[in-house]
Amino acid sequence: MDVFDKAVGGADIVSCLGPLSGLAGTWSGEAGIDVAAGRHGPVETPYRERLQFEPLGPVVNGPQLLYGLRYSTTAWPLGCDDPFHEEVGYWLWDAKAGQVMRCFMVPRGVTINAGGDASADATAFTMQALLGSTTFGILSNPFLDQAFRTVRYDLSVELHEDGAFSYHEDTHLQIHGVEGVFHHTDCNRLTRITD
Known about the structure:
Elements: E1 25-38, E2 41-61, E3 64-77, E4 85-94, E5 99-106, E6 110-117, E7 124-130, E8 138-140, H1 142-147, E9 148-159, E10 165-175, E11 182-194
Antiparallel strand pairs: 1-2, 1-11, 2-3, 3-4, 4-5, 5-6, 6-8, 7-9, 9-10, 10-11
């Protein structure tokens, strides 16, 4: 499709999402495990989560044509009514470059633009962002940059034959006063509850 051709719309957008096409809809999962830094070492928190992916596109950047998913997610510790994590952003597909991207913000004041290579029919893919990169990078508010600096973000996603999907995130943190890198990880397996 030429970037100046009339764009497809409605349900046809899903057919333009490449490896992201299987994610459109609303998802829920209660098998999440968050491993975060605590005062006396790692703290493991089981959580439930709800994700919403809404197809969008095309997004035209001159010769670049993107399709994607507008998304939001909220996670609650199991047994709690108050969420402990939220984020909003976009998952994007650049068919010509064969790249998946995820750009999002959390209300702690951190923004991540991650990306990776994938084929249009991939059922598993990865994305990464690095502190200091001018393309797939990370920005934090001044406090977090000093106290809990995010230096790397890795995401792997797998769409399963039973219709579920799972992810594993590894956020590499440099914590003020602590040697080495702490791996703040999150993983969950989710099932679609609406298209």
